[in-house]
């Protein structure tokens, strides 16, 4: 689950990381009131940022400065009227503008290859990390956090030293890097990114400079939200893909892929095996979709709608092993779904286990293409996809 910058800042603040003051507004008048408070607190300029879950806000005109409360109101009105990458701007963040001396990139993310939390830092802050990696891979330094202890102090200092930090800034950096790993672990975040982590003047402290998390991007693990019920309020359903939202609301595990064969399976392990066999048969899976155990006809019909919403799907493979799930219920759902679908896509169905005989009778009467083994089903689905949709 992606969250907006405003909520990402709040999360960082909860863990004691340095985040500037700020407030969100949904109207120009509310933006003016927020700006007035910040100017009264000593700000000389404020920045108004569109809160949309896409990159490139600045290039699209979604990030602007204002030197007065009246200007902040007019700038907020202009930004709230924008649509950025098909997403309407419904809220803005108002924060004090920072006098940036230097920008740093810092992130903690789940690294599946090493099955741990990877911390990355770069002196080239303010840029997309993909651009930095493409131009100069050596500009990015990495450390793997300890699986139990988190990012160790010497690792955090080593990261900071590699990007040129010394003295008080190095101490601050080590604390922030350690904090990002704590957030990843304790908040069940897949990604915690600060870009830029800015060096700003601070004459009141030793060294005269300090680090501030000016922009943050956080992705939370949906599967762990039951451990963090307050995070659910941060979900922006209007920015979600409608298909992803329907899958979530129906309790269907769904991940869109780039292939042409839609897959409907019950059980995560069986779903992964199905994707492997489709690939081995020469096809490309269009999705991972697990309808779960005990799926009834309405859930099967919803799963079919979700698969067909992907215009790239040229054939569908249904692979059901009936344990808790009843084969005849799945068959009824498939028949119902086919009667309702707006476009006809060839389909092959393999159902074994509980009530498989009843399912076979229903599917035969409805003229469905069936298979008795998964290998056969995968080969037929690949052949159907090659022939295209009818």
3D structure, described in words:
This protein is α+β, with helices and mostly antiparallel strands and about 400 residues long. It has helices at about 5-15, 30-40, 70-80, 130-135, 155-160, 165-185, 240-250, 270-280, 295-310, 325-340, 355-365, 375-385; strands at about 1-5, 25, 45-50, 65, 85, 85-90, 90-95, 100-110, 115-120, 140-145, 190-200, 210-215, 215-220, 255, 260-265, 285-290, 315-320, 345-355, 370. The protein has three domains: about 20-95, 2-Layer Sandwich (Dna Ligase, domain 1); about 100-235, ATP-grasp fold, B domain (D-amino Acid Aminotransferase, Chain A, domain 1); about 240-385, Succinyl-CoA synthetase domains (Rossmann fold), CATH 3.40.50. It contains twelve helices and 19 strands. The strands form five sheets. Strands 1, 8, 9, 10, 11, 12 and 13 form a seven-stranded antiparallel sheet that branches. Strand 11 (about 190-200) and strand 12 form a beta hairpin. Helix 5 packs across helix 6 (about 165-185), helix 7 (about 240-250) runs antiparallel to helix 9 and helix 10 (about 325-340) runs parallel beside helix 11. The chain is elongated, with a radius of gyration of 26 Å. The mean pLDDT is about 90.
């Amino acid at each position: 689950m992606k969250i907006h910058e405003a909520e990402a800042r709040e999360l960082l603040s909860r863990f004691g990381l340095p985040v500037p003051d700020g407030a969100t507004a949904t109207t120009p008048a509310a933006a003016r009131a927020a700006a007035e408070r910040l100017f009264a607190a000593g700000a000389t300029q404020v920045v108004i940022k569109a809160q949309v879950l896409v990159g490139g806000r600045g290039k699209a005109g979604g990030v602007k400065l204002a030197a007065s409360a009246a200007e902040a109101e007019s700038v907020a009105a202009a930004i709230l009227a924008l649509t950025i990458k098909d997403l309407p701007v419904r809220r803005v963040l108002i924060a004090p503008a920072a006098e940036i001396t230097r920008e740093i990139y810092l992130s903690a993310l789940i690294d599946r290859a090493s099955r741990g939390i990877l911390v990355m830092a770069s002196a080239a802050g303010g840029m997309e990390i993909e651009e930095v990696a493409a131009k100069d891979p050596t500009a990015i330094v990495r450390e793997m956090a300890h699986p139990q202890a988190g990012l160790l102090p010497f690792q955090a200092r080593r990261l900071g030293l590699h990007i040129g930090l010394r003295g008080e800034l190095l101490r601050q950096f080590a604390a922030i890097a350690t904090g990002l790993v704590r957030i990843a672990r304790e908040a069940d975040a897949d990604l915690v990114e600060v870009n830029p982590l800015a060096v700003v003047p601070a004459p009141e402290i030793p060294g005269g400079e300090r680090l501030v998390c000016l922009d943050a991007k956080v992705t939370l693990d949906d599967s762990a939200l039951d451990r963090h019920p307050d995070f659910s309020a941060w979900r922006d359903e209007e920015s979600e893909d409608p298909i992803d939202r329907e899958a979530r609301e129906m309790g269907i595990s769904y991940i869109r892929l780039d292939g042409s064969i839609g897959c409907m399976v019950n059980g995560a392990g069986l779903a992964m095996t199905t994707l492997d066999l489709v690939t081995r048969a020469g096809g490309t899976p269009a999705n991972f979709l697990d309808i779960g155990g005990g799926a009834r006809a309405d859930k099967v019909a919803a799963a079919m709608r979700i698969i067909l919403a992907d215009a790239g799907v040229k054939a569908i493979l249904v692979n059901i092993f009936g344990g808790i799930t009843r084969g005849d219920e799945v068959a009824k759902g498939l028949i119902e779904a086919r009667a309702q679908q707006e476009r006809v896509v060839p389909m092959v169905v393999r159902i074994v286990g509980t009530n498989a005989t009843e399912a076979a009778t229903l599917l035969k009467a409805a003229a469905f293409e069936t298979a008795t083994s998964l290998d056969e089903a995968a080969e037929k689905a690949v052949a159907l996809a090659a022939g295209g949709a009818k």
